[in-house]
Design brief:
Distance between the termini of chain A: 30 Å
Helix content of chain A: 55-70%
Radius of gyration of chain A: 29 Å
Oligomer: heterodimer
Number of helices of chain A: 9
Strand order of the largest sheet of chain B: 6-7-8-3-9-10
Largest sheet of chain A: 4 strands, antiparallel
Number of strands of chain B: 10
Order of helices and strands of chain B: EEEHEEHEHHHEHEHEEHH
Strand content of chain B: 25-35%
Chain lengths: 319, 244
């Protein structure tokens, strides 16, 4: 009972601190001359496109039949050819029996499209997903190489990890695109995903190495003493146990990767960050867009960490 | 069944080399129970680990059923399937249930189907007296129960020989008995066994032969009667005086 009372106190304190900080930021912002234009933001998530529909020949409007939101326009050319086209019923610039020239607009096709913020988010997600999968594979191989007893194999892996961990990701992306991209004729997506997965792979390798080495030697020995081969023992005994231990650091790495993927915007991949910059150049809604972009990254990463939290609890059954 | 000839195992590191096992030779015949005793650091554990090549020895030979296990052409996994091993720290697979601990290697190595493997596993769990724990994870079992599961796991492979590496050393005293009982029962059933232990009572009661190791060397070997009543070597006498 006492404990819960105390917790309430701390909860209220937390709320007060958060509200105060928000108020301070709000106060500072209102002293500068910035015009907030939040109403401009939604269109960059979803917007209604209206592509003009054009008559393909010189001819005449035979009929316009409206049903629901659509209108079916029947056109007849000078040579008697008949064509039916469907356009949005609300904004039809023509009337029945009107004579038209080829290329005149007879109406608009209206549909909902993803705005740059959503397409950018999509790009960020699939680039991160691809780089995570590749990074996991690279990291798994490099991690196993690092614990190998063979000098050449383990040193190769160590050199790879050292190089990647000792240089900035931004520089790696530039090298991947401007150097390897030019030499091997890679497009920017390949270069970007390649740089990200090599980067993630080095960190994953260290996580996996540490995870495998944290499993007592007796586990491998017990499996081998039963006649299991080295790969069997790895797959059935060591890796499943190591996986449970490396899940938290590994998921942290992949969440970092989503955030780090914003750096590929420097090689003109239109991810969420680059989309944000592009929107700002046309709207000057700098504050709104960056806040929205940050919120979008935050939503993705928190969904992911909640999922990992759930997974960890499920895997904890045998503890 | 087991023939070890002049086995040498050297550990080296940081400029120090230790001859942990220094030229040990012995044989274990079919159905025989051989107990190895000796002070800590005498190399007895290292030696028993050489017998199924968990420890790669530097010199000498170990033959299991006439097959040289150090020979490059020997399929060591096939040999190990015939040689069960029980460890001091149990080494059960913590992410698998008791049943899965017993069935995994049967299916992977012996290529048994799940049904056969399960039957075998349940039969052995009943034999070691923990049939009711088959769906528990090892962390829920006491040390003695874990070690009995570990024995059942090794037996599930239908080994020709069982190696025990200090099977009771990590147990609380009140659990030693239940594990030793299982081992005694095995011995009565005619299992060929090699046991490294500090349990002198077990050695006296069950062993056909006792080996005494000290500083990597085989100092003395003989029947329990000879060994405990009239040992030849001074080092053996000293050791027995300390432990009995």
């Amino acid at each position: 009972m006492k404990l819960t009372e105390k917790l309430w106190f701390w909860k209220i304190l937390l709320a007060v601190i958060l509200i105060l900080s928000a108020a301070m930021i709000w106060g500072s912002v209102s002293r500068i001359d910035y015009e907030w234009r939040w109403y401009r933001v939604p269109q960059y998530f979803l917007y209604q496109s209206d592509d003009p529909v054009k008559i393909p020949f010189d001819g005449r409007v035979e009929s316009i039949k409206t049903s629901g939101g659509d209108a079916k326009v029947t056109l007849i050319s000078e040579t008697g050819e008949q064509v039916e086209m469907v356009v949005d019923a609300k904004s039809i610039p023509i009337v029945e029996n009107e004579d038209l020239f080829a290329g005149d607009t007879i109406g608009y096709e209206v549909e909902w499209r993803m705005g740059p913020l959503l397409t950018g988010l999509w790009t960020t997600l699939w680039i991160s997903a691809a780089a995570s999968v590749l990074g996991l594979i690279i990291g798994m191989v490099a991690g196993l190489m690092k614990i190998s007893k063979n000098y050449t194999v383990s040193t190769l892996a160590a050199i790879y990890v050292e190089i990647i961990r000792g240089t900035p990701l931004l520089v790696q992306i530039f090298i991947a695109y401007f150097f390897f991209g030019t030499v091997f004729n890679l497009n920017r997506n390949v270069a970007g995903i390649g740089a990200l997965s090599l980067f993630a792979g080095a960190y994953v390798a260290e996580i996996i190495r540490a995870g495998i080495q944290s499993i007592p030697k007796g586990q491998m020995e017990a499996a081998r003493s039963l006649g299991m081969s080295m790969p069997q023992a790895m797959m059935d005994i060591v890796l499943p146990q190591a996986f449970k231990r490396i899940l938290p650091p590994l998921s942290g790495q992949f969440i970092s990767l989503i955030k780090d993927s914003s750096l590929v915007s420097v090689i003109a991949i239109t991810d969420l960050t680059k989309s944000g910059r592009e929107i700002i150049t046309s709207t000057f809604a700098t504050f709104e867009i960056w806040l929205v972009v940050a919120a979008m990254y935050l939503i993705v990463t928190s969904v992911l960490s909640q999922f990992v939290f759930y997974l960890e609890r499920r895997l904890a059954i045998s503890d | 069944m087991i023939r070890a000839e002049n086995v040498v195992k050297v550990f080296s590191g940081r400029g120090v080399t230790v001859r942990a096992v220094d030229g040990v030779s012995t044989t274990v015949d079919k159905g025989e129970v051989v107990v190895i005793i000796g002070p800590s650091g005498s190399g007895k554990s290292t030696f028993i680990r050489c017998v199924n090549a968990l420890e790669k020895f530097n010199e000498g030979h170990v033959y299991i059923d006439g097959v040289d296990i150090a020979d490059k052409k020997t399929n060591i996994n096939k040999i190990r399937a015939e040689v069960g091993m029980v460890f001091q720290q149990f080494n059960l697979f913590p992410h698998k249930t008791v049943l899965e601990n017993l069935t995994l290697a049967q299916m992977r190595v012996r290529k048994r189907n799940k049904k056969t493997a399960l039957e075998k596993a349940r039969m052995l769990l009943a034999k070691v007296g923990i049939a009711e724990k088959e769906n528990e994870y090892p962390s829920r079992l006491s040390g003695g129960q874990q070690q009995r599961v570990a024995i059942a796991r090794a037996l599930a492979m239908d080994p020709k020989v069982m190696l025990f590496d200090e099977p009771t050393s990590a147990l609380d005293p009140e659990m030693v008995g239940e594990v030793l009982d299982v081992m005694k029962q095995l011995a009565r059933e005619g299992m060929t066994m090699m046991v490294v232990t500090h349990e002198m009572g077990f050695a006296r009661e069950v062993a056909d032969r006792v080996l005494f190791m000290d500083e990597g060397k085989m100092v003395e070997e003989g029947t329990p009667e000879h060994f405990f009543i009239e040992p030849r070597e001074d080092r053996t006498k000293l050791f027995l005086k300390q432990v009995l």
